Amino acid sequence: MADTRKPVQEFTLRLRRYDPESGQAPYWDEHTIALEPHRSVLEGILQAKDRFDGSIGVRCSCRAAICGSCGVRINGQPGLACHTHLDKALKSSKGGVIEVEPMGNMPVIKDLIVDMDAVHWKKIQRVTPWLLEKQPMPEREYLVPREAMVDVTQSMACIQCGACVSDCLSMEVDPLFIGPAALAKAYRFVGDPRDAQQRERLKDLAEDPHGMYDCTHCFKCIEACPKGVSPMNQIMRLRRRAGGDHHIEDRNNGYRHEKAFVKNIYKNGLLHEADLLPDSYGGKFHPRAVPELLASLPAITKALLRRKVTPAKALLHQHKAPKDVKAIYDLIENRPERDELNLYISGYDEDDNGGAEPNVSAVVGGGEDGAMASAPGASPRGKV
């Protein structure tokens, strides 16, 4: 039988090294390893650790893209070291050198190991990541509609690797933001019909000044996720549930700003900056607007200095939205299953589930009429 193995090839790994306890500044450390091109970056790191420097710090476990332990940045992009082939990493490298560094938005423990407890797991616990059972509990199992569980299978696919947290621009600006991983986990329970406190969960996330309305729709978490969870899409689902199903509205400036933006474009076709800010506070004549506008004077001053807003634009803005713009808005508003007005915000049409097949393997069992059986104790408290 012919040997189909690819020949061994040399690769240069440039590892970001840092030990906070040493008192030294971070530095880069290069090693040349020899492996088949289809081998993973993790295997390359472990070879460098085994052959050249046993002090290299790296976290890993399953080596099969299941446990999420080996999250790092490869050539500036977050990913799983065990799931990224060396030849693929080489193609995205600069100068033929594969750079590996720790994930962002989390403190570094040593080299490529970050403190997940300090940021990631702390925020996961913040959203109460377990079912709050309805009372009284059924004598046997819960019967759950199959479509309800398929709805949450995307969020259930999360392996808690922290890649989305690493690349979240909102967390970079505001470390108190709950973050994409925790909010995706929150939807896993908000979307579960067995949960007894869906409204309370949504109200909490809507009223939190660092909650679900702090997402800026940058799509970085969608690009970063190795398992197709699409955290931003789960955040948009939370918002739909809050506003559409539970009428939890007008809770913070993030929500009001989003609504004002949609209204502004629908009315003008182009963004009218002079109206956007007061409308985000409820309108020029809303009691809330005056103190909020006064507090926003620094931002208003910057806008004037940069000519984003001028007196002429503010007073003489006569532009009206073209008919086709309004037609698109009206069409979406009148859909039986209403999507976000700005489809780019939600990232996909709910009807096609983002073009991805739901992870049906995560749904086990079945009952009559398409119902799925779930034992009352199937979601142990505290398990994430």
From TrEMBL:
Keywords: 2Fe-2S, 3Fe-4S, 4Fe-4S, Iron, Iron-sulfur, Metal-binding, Oxidoreductase, Tricarboxylic acid cycle
Cofactor(s), names only, from the UniProt record: [3Fe-4S] cluster; [4Fe-4S] cluster; [2Fe-2S] cluster
Source superkingdom: Bacteria
Broad EC category: oxidoreductase
Pathway: Carbohydrate metabolism; tricarboxylic acid cycle
Cofactor, free-text remark: Binds 1 [3Fe-4S] cluster. Binds 1 [4Fe-4S] cluster.
Listed SUPFAM superfamilies: 2Fe-2S ferredoxin-like (SSF54292), alpha-helical ferredoxin (SSF46548)
Signal is among the record's keywords: no
Gene3D superfamilies to which the protein is assigned, alphabetical: 3.10.20.30, Alpha-helical ferredoxin
InterPro entries named in the record: 2Fe-2S_ferredoxin-like_sf, 2Fe-2S_ferredoxin-type, 2Fe2S_fd_BS, 4Fe4S_Fe-S-bd, 4Fe4S_Fe_S_CS, Beta-grasp_dom_sf, Helical_ferredxn, SDH/FRD_Iron-Sulfur
Domain annotation 2Fe-2S ferredoxin-type: ranges: 11-104
GO terms of biological process kind: respiratory electron transport chain; tricarboxylic acid cycle
Family as reported in the entry's similarity comment: Belongs to the succinate dehydrogenase/fumarate reductase iron-sulfur protein family.
Protein's name according to its UniProt entry: Fumarate reductase iron-sulfur subunit
